[in-house]
Each structure stands twice: as C-alpha cells, then as structure tokens.
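DM from R.C. (forwarded with permission)

"hey, sorry to bug you on a friday — could you get me a structure for this? deadline for the figure draft is monday and I only need the backbone to look sensible"
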Amino acid sequence: MKKNPVAWAALVVSSAALVSSSGALRQMPAAPNVPAEGQKTATALSQAYAAVADFVRPSVVQITVTKKAGKIPNLRNFPFPGPNGRRPNPNSPNNPKDLEELLKRFFGPDGLVEPQQFGREAHGTGSGFVYDNSGHIVTNNHVVSDAEKITVTFHDGVEAPATVVGTDDKSDVAVIKVDATNYPALPKGDSTKVKVGELVMAIGSPFELSQSVTTGIISATERNDVKINAYESFLQTDASINPGNSGGPLVNMSGEVIGVNSAIVTGGRGNDGIGFAIPMDMASSVADQLIKQQDHKVHRGAIGIVLAPLTPSLARQLGIDAGTKGILVSEIIAGSPAEKAGLKQGDVIVGLAGEKIVSLPTFRLKVAGSPVGKSFDLEYYRDGKRQTATLTPAPFESVAFEREKEQGQKDGSPSAGQPKSSAIGDLGLEVQPLTPDLAKSLDLPAGSTGLLVSEVKEGSAAEAEGIKEGDLITKVVKDRKIQPLGSVKEFQELASKADEVSFYVQTGKDPGRFVTLAKAKK
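My reply, with the result:
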C-alpha cells in the first residue's frame, strides 16, 4: 500500500498534541507561584485563625434542650397572612394568639429575619459560651425558654445538666448554670469599638455540628431596625451563621467575645451571608443583672415619654431647622420623670448625657440601660430654642403602671352618639369624632379619643401615605407645638390655612406615627 505523506504528517502532529495534553511533555509545578512576601502573609493569617480557634473552642458549648412538644409550634400548619396582608381572626382555634410572637421569632415581621431557633421537634440544639468561673453560661433566650431539660456538652465531650438562672426576652439573652467550673471563661471585648470590616469568627453547633468555626467580617454595626427584639443594636456579619449557632460567640482576632450570635436573614433555613449578633456590651449588662439581681430579672430605667421619628416637615413646623437630627416627644406620661423635669409634648430631643441622639431605637436603648435613680442631662429644642433638662430614670414597671392608671381614668367617657363624617380640606380624607361606642366596636383601648378616619379618597395624598379607613388621628402640629386634636372643626380650620398639615395617626392598638400631608395643587 502506498503511503500518503499528508496523512502521516497529520498522524504525527495529532500524536504529539495528545502526548503534550497528557502532561508527558511538560512538568507540573510543585507549588503555586506566590511571591515569598505574599506566602508569608497568608501563612501568618492562617496561623492567626488557627490560634484564635484553639483559644476559643474550650469555652464554647453545645446546648441540647428538651421541651414539651406542645411548646414548639408546628409552623407548617400555621395560617399565614393572605393576599390582602391581613392576619386571620386571632380568636380562631387554628390561630392561637400566643403563637403570634413565636411566628415573629421564627420569620420576623416580613418573613425574612429568622432567629436561630432549633426546629419544631421536642428536642433542639443551640450554642453558648462560658461566661465566668462560677459555671454561668450565656446563650439566647429563645434557645432555653420553656425548657424542661437542658444538657450542656463541652468541647471535650463532657456533658453536664444545666439550670436556667434568668432569661430576658426583650434582648434575647439568657444565662444558664452548670456545676462544672474547670472550663475557661471567654474574655469580653469592647463591642462599642468594633469597626466595619474587622475580621471575626463565629463558633457554635450549626445543624448539631458542634465546635464548627466560620470566619468573616463585621458588615455593619448598630442595626437597630431588625425588629425581632424590643431592645436591639445588632452587629451584622457575613461569617456563616446557621440554625444551632444561636447563643454562640462572635469573637475578634484577639479571641475576645464581642457578640452573641442570634439571627440571620434568609430565604430558607440556611445562611445567606447576613447574620446578626447581640453586641457584648448589651449582652453582658443583661447577663450581669440576671446573675446578680435577687429576682434574676433585668431592671430597666424609664422616663415616661412616648416618642416619634422627626421628619424634615415636622421640624419646619416646630420652628427648627429641617436638617435637625433628633426624636420627637409625642406624649408625656403623668407623674413620670419626664413630666417632673418639665418636658412637654412637641419637644425635640437631640442629646442625652453629652451624646448626640439621631434615632429612636438608640435613645430607647440608652434610657433603658441608664441606672435607676442616677440623673443625666437631656438636650432638646422647644419653640426653636435649645434647652437642657435633668432627668432621673424610674423603674420601668412603675412608669408603665402610671400610664395604665392614666388610661384607666379616661374610662367611662359619655357617649356622644353616632356623629357624621366631614371632609378635611384637600387632604383626601373624611373624619368623624370617636365615641366610646365606636372605640369599643373597633377594639381600641379604653379611653381613646380623637378623630376616626371614615373615608380615604382614591389617588389622594392621604392614600399615598398609607392612611386607611378606621385609623385614628389623635394629635396635630399647630403653632409650632403638638396639640391634642379636639374637634373636626379645628382640623378643618388648620387644613384650610396651612399648605401642609402634620398629625399623629394610629391603626388599632399598634404604635402610631406622624404623617405630613400637603394640599393638592390646583
């Protein structure tokens, strides 16, 4: 057979390419080509992570909890809000009212924020860490609340029964205790000095995988609008946090605990890179009270004011610069420290104990954390002038009692019958006086007063601001002051004279808000 030179050449080339692709003709490198200085830095960082993990792990525990099956709801059968956003009848046997808070605890108000609860079975797993040399362990309230039996497992496999010392559902912090005290307590870091971008490490028992270590950075601080706890100022991190991490420590690269892992934002049950930890300064303050107080409860201070956010429109109408950062006093509780100090409705608070106040949650945290009986200075604007008052916080319970007593004294107001509704200028809504009978039929608190929204015009400014039929308007900004809204006529006169009107509106028993409506342009 005659040989084809082209075919033989093609065979030789293809064979060479095949051998070359198999690696026979080139030597594979023994290691990545990393500059010596870069390799040194990477090795040092790796060693630092390993050192921190070795230091922290002996102080981190797995917490196994047994509860009565009935105390852990089967949320799969829980009736969720329908397309109109309304929840089912709270009196329905399929919608126990006491499960409402648990629903928020699992899914948050919008179905996104999920504390690291351990499931729907009678047994669950969380995390914690040794707090001191007396056997106290810090964890989350939602890990151990209603627990029938608690077992703590240490890093070396030793198990010990634990008892609840105290819990605080408002901050989601709890303290339990074991007899074993030969395990080291974690040093406490200063969470007020934590910086965004700082390297951190989370350790716990996600999905019952004990002593799991994840790393990341601080993504944000002072997240006080997550709305899963009454008092919150979360550290946000991208360190992987999953169910079972609840109560475990978030530590810095010095091995100091700076936060207590508590919640995640997720579309499912796993981590999406957004986790939240209770800052250690808050957690330790709560834990110390739970341990040291005779009743093992947290005692918070209160000054007796109801607050509202300050908007630029409200600031202008109150006679101060529209760019002022602060919070608005919408109500003063009779007999409270605020009343005794001379504060009034319509004051704008801008400073507390020498620190600027720019948000309502921050102010609530600072007041609640203030020692009862110890005075501080409060800076505020009134009639456009900056002033200072000295307040002495009282126990929260006593101030709350005074408010309940004040509400009770309003009971029994005479019924005025069923009044007619009236339009309010060009604002797009009609209102009518609220009678005791109407208040009762709408399940409003006893003694409620104000104007009831009877109609909202489609496409109006009122509709755009989310005002609905059945909302209650109780206060109005007038003459640079917040004043009770006494009559329909007063509201109409104010709306006819001003280009924009600010008033306080609330829906049912929910906290209210200030709304500013401008006249429709003709």
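R.C.: lifesaver. The radius of gyration is 30 Å.
me: no worries. The CA atoms of residues 200 and 253 lie 6 Å apart.
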